[in-house]
Structures are given as C-alpha cells and as structure tokens.
Amino acid sequence: MKDWVAWHTAYDDPVSPLSDEDIERTAAAAPAMCAPGATVIWTRHRRAPDLTPRVRGWFRASGFDEVAFDTPDTRTRVGVGVGCLAVAPRAAPPDGPLFTFRAA
Asked: Which helix (H) or strand (E) segment is 40 a member of?
C-alpha cells in the first residue's frame, strides 16, 4: 500500500478534474456498477477545501460500509478510502454521464 501511495501522490493533481457534484453522482451510482459485497477504493487530496469527509458520507449514503480510511503523511495530503457494498446492487446506473473532466 505504501508503494502505491507513493506512486499515486506523485501524480495527484492539486486541482481535481472533477466537480464536487460529479464525485457525488459517481458515488451514488457505484452500487449499480458493483457485485454484491464489492469493495471500492477511492482517493482524494485533502488540501483545502478537504472534500474527503463529504466523499465518505456520499459512499455511506450509497450503501457502502466504510472498511478503512487512511491519510498517509505525504507531501500531497492524500486520503484513501475503502468501502464494502452492504446493500443489494442497483439494476442500472443513472442515465447520462457520471462525470465530465474539467480543463486544467
């Protein structure tokens, strides 16, 4: 895990290419893309404004039990979350795109 975090943080852009709404929509759609009991791993920088508390809540609201959340002491202040799907998977994700990459 530490090797992965070291690699990831080297490429973690301080400006997210996704809007907060896109991240929330993706978390809400995740159960439709998972098998029963699936594990989801997500990452997010923790620089201001730190969105990780909201991302954790969005995954909980979507039916994931939080298995772990870690904030390794790295230069880019990354957060790593792990959730396990605790509800029945949904039949299909919502219509339309889940997210759109913003220009840097």
From this structure: strand 39-45
**CATH number, domain with residue 11:** 3.40.50.150
Record the tokens describing residue 32, joined without a space.
């439709």
Record the pTM: 0.80
What is the domain range of residue 57? 2-85
* CA–CA separation, 32 and 19 (whole Å): 21
Total tally of structural domains belonging to the chain:
1
Task: Let me know if residue 102 belongs to a domain.
Answer: no
Gap between the Cα atoms of 100 and 17, Å rounded: 8
Provide block-wise average pLDDT over 10 residues at a time, the chain (104 residues). 42 66 92 94 89 96 97 84 95 84 72
Provide the 10 A C-beta neighbour count for residue 94.
11
DSSP code at position 48: S
